[in-house]
Amino acid sequence: MEEHPGGPLADSEVATMFRLLARFAEHDLDQWDNWRLETSYGPVYINVSRALGPGWQDDAFTPVWPLPRFKDASQGDASGG
To answer: What per-residue confidence (pLDDT) applies to 79?
Structure first.
């Protein structure tokens, strides 16, 4: 049986995801990790890396850690996008 991930994330869950991802990057990431998530829209590919890929600029990425603008849920969407 296939597990369903559930509905949309609440702002507090997005903040928790970013915090856990920051912990992963700090303690568990060596050079890179490549992940594939199967979704109802098709696969999603995620690359987590300590280096920018060829042709990518730093300003193309939304800073999500630390979370200064996401600490208060009343400040709106924590999706970073």
So the answer is: 53
